[in-house]
Amino acid sequence: MFTGLIEEVGKISAINKKDDGLKIKVECNKILDDIKLGDSVAVNGVCLTVVNIDKNSLDFEVSNETIKRSNFKFLKINEYVNLERAMTPSSRLGGHIVQGHVDTTGEITSITNLGKHTNIKIRFPSEYDYLVIEKGSIAIDGISLTINYINENVIDLNIIPHTWENTNLKYRKVGDIVNIEFDILGKYVAKMLNLGKQKEDKLKNLLENW
Predict the structure, then answer these.
(1) Which of 141, 138, 106 is nearest to 121 (CA)?
(2) What percentage of the chain has pLDDT greater than the value 70?
(3) In principle, which of 70, 80, 96, 105 could form an S-S bond with 137, CB 3.0–4.6 Å?
(4) Domain 104-190 belongs to what architecture?
(5) Are 5 and 85 in contact (CB under 8 A)?
(6) Are 186 and 133 in contact, with CB atoms under 8 Å apart?
(7) How far apart are the two ends of the chain, measured CA to CA in Å?
(8) Degrees to nearest 5, angle at CA 120 with 114 and 125
(9) CATH 2.40.30.20 domain span(s) along the chain
């Protein structure tokens, strides 16, 4: 479990293709402090397990399912990635609940400098529009952000200076593909409402055919 508050921006230093996915090496410093083999780290919002620890890097294995659902299929050497260690029981939940289970990807359609702040618009697949609400939470490349506005299947995000300077957003450009994880609470509510509707329809059919 994560908060979406990025601890460090790391750099991809190696990508090795395997039959069952990828093995990647990420250069980092800050998050190495108390890391152990088997720990979970969110890399661009994807929950991965540490399989090797070096002096200034961590190794992770990425499954084919993760590659299919995320922007890891476009990963390149020297690319900057957002890093966050898993929450501890005493951590403050400063962002929102982020599982590290990416739902889909989106495309950056515009980046506008607004002085101190930056506006970013991201197009996402329209089949997920029921999970997106204005002023709701969303994780973009693992960053906990608030949705300002929605125009059909394009979300409008305001990036404060701290987030811009301490994440990989400052390296992003129009056309880049980013990982998206929708709010888990919204997903549960949508599921329950759908189940309720299904049961209601089933009961209605039973009564009509009584």
Answers:
(1) 106
(2) 89
(3) 96
(4) Beta Barrel (2.40)
(5) no
(6) yes
(7) 48
(8) 160
(9) 8-85, 104-190
Q: Which residues contact 166 (CB under 8 A, 6 or more apart)?
A: 6, 9
Task: Work out the burial of residue 13: count CB atoms within 10 Å of its CB; fewer than 13 is exposed, 13-18 middle, 19 or more buried.
Answer: middle
pLDDT score of 147 more than 70: yes
Joined together, the tokens standing for residue 193 give: 């409402």
d(CA 30, CA 9): 9
What whole-number distance in Å separates Cα of residue 177 and Cα of residue 181?
Answer: 13
Are the CB atoms for 179 and 46 separated by under 8 Å? yes
pLDDT tens column, 123-139: 999 999 989 989 999 99
Q: Does domain 8-85 have CATH number 3.40.50.1100?
A: no
Q: Rg (Cα) of the chain, in Å, rounded?
A: 19
Cα angle 59, 63, 65; round to 5: 150
Alpha carbons 199 and 21: distance in angstroms, whole number: 40
- Beta-ladder partners of 2: 98
The arithmetic mean of pLDDT across residues 165-182, rounded, is 96
Residue 187 CA to residue 182 CA, distance in Å, equals 7
pLDDT, residue 91, reads: 62
